[in-house]
Amino acid sequence: MERISAGPHHTTYKIGGISVTSLRDGYVDMPIRRLRHPGDEPFGDDLPSQVPLFDGALRLSVNAFAIDDGQDVMLIDTGSSNAWHPTMGLLPQALSEARIAIGRVRTVAFTHTHLDHIHGIVRPDGRDSFPQLTRLLVPRAELDMFRSVARLSGFHDRAEPLDPGQRLSANVEAVAAPGHEIGHTCFRVTSDGGTLLVWGDLVHVPSLQFDRPEVAWEFDADQAQARASRLHIFALAADNAWCVAGAHLDSPGVGRIFRTETAFRFEPL
After folding, report:
1. What range(s) does the Metallo-beta-lactamase domain occupy (predicted)?
2. Taking every pair of C-alpha atoms in the chain, what is the biggest distance, in angstroms?
3. What stretch of H or E contains 225?
4. 19 touches 195 (CB < 8 A)
5. How far, in Å, CA of 50 to CA of 53, rounded?
6. Cα–Cα distance between 87 and 72 in angstroms, integer?
């Protein structure tokens, strides 16, 4: 993968004949106790020193990813719009900075249905963020969750089920990674021999969870399953030399995973 452009809110890479753009929706600060030891015990004073803190809190980047095949744009996740913290909702600025016209976004696919991934399909003023959208893909197991979100009622009937193994296009395939949420999904992007795996919330704190993949997150729906998915996906990416892109990896959130003697390490591109 080759970086071809960058700015404060975007970084675009070339992978074969397509481009993938990391779009920065912003960040959110979370308490240390969100990190959980096996057994659901929260971290506290035992937080390792390599984890940076901002006023005593964990700072999580929030990233979405645009896949451009030269004709249409597929968007993986959409950020939070104005549904959560005021430090988020920068997706429109990121798209503009990356020179991606909103009218070219024809497909939106969600990794899962937590609010910092789905609310960006609606602008703060209530208008549709992507007026030319023709396909909205939601993990099948989470369709009811999506359709329970009142703010997104205009999209409830437009949502289509997304299944593991489903091909979204010639270059994009859905990969199951349940645990953080019941239908949590990754997307394998391939072109001309290059592969990028776009995931949602497989990792929340990259300074810790590559070295200690057993560490879970308070909001994991099933912490044991989330750990198993994390280890499985890490091994796939490391053993096949795939690049990876994560919603909460430090912006732009794109890099490679390598095995260590005891776990894994992440190297940003």
Report:
1. 61-248
2. 51
3. helix 223-240
4. no
5. 9
6. 29
Residues 202-237 as b or e (16 or more Cβ within 10 Å = b): bbbbbebbbbebebbbeebbbbebbbebbeebbebb
Residue 205 is encoded by which pair of tokens?
């704190």
CA distance 260 to 224: 22
The pLDDT of residue 216: 98
Contacts of 204 (CB under 8 A, 6+ apart): 30, 34, 35, 58, 60, 217, 248
Question: 97 in helix, strand or coil?
Answer: helix
Residue type, 222: D
pTM of the model: 0.97
Sign of CA dihedral 235, 238, 240, 245: positive
Query: CA-to-CA distance for 22 and 6, rounded, in angstroms?
Result: 9
In this prediction, residue 85 carries a pLDDT of: 93
CATH number for the segment(s) 2-268: 3.60.15.10
Q: Which two tokens stand for residue 110?
A: 């969600």
Work out the pLDDT band at 198, boundaries 50, 70, 90: very high
| Distances 50 to 38, 166, 186, 206, 267 between C-alpha atoms, Å | 20, 38, 27, 10, 15
Q: Domain extents for the chain?
A: 2-268
